[in-house]
Amino acid sequence: MSQPEPALMKYERERIVLEHIKENPELHHNALLKHIVPKFMAKTTFEKTRDSLIEKEIIFVTSKSNMKFYRLTENYEHKSAQHIEQTTNNSFHDVKSQIKRLETDFPHKDIDEKIIISNSLLKLLLQTDNGFTILDSLKNPKKTLYRDEHLIIQQLIFKVFEIIRNDNDSELLLPTILSFLGVIVPKNSSDT
Known about the structure:
Radius of gyration: 22 Å
Strand order of the largest sheet: 1-2
Number of strands: 2
Oligomer: single chain
Largest sheet: 2 strands, antiparallel
Helix content: 55-70%
Strand content: 5-15%
Structural class: mainly alpha
Distance between the termini: 29 Å
């Protein structure tokens, strides 16, 4: 049975590939491969790492003749902030419309569906709020630029709990959903 790859190893591999690309921009694919494989990782691991970096738009590929060259994405911090802003805003509008439908749909679901829907909505709300917090920090750490959005998310979280509390299955739903939230919210520091 295979074990999941530790997160640190993935980031360490990404760092190794990025360092080699930055330090050796003249190396084409095969030459870069020789620098990294097998000293740091296997060929398939290199290819998966490279593909992940391309997918995240951290690097991009240019071709000259029949050779591929890898480059670091210029102004990555700015582009990633734009991406965070776009996905956070999309998520914000999406979750608002999902919660609007929740009041009418929720009572007609079975208990497992109610738990899954509630958990996914609460997780999405918290992730969206985190996105706005990151944007606040990147843009101006001394001001809350997304104050209205944070407040609306707070109200939407309340709305989800209100729907749960008013449901016929609330006595079963509430403990299960709050237990799930324990996975997301910080633990008591004295418990560690």
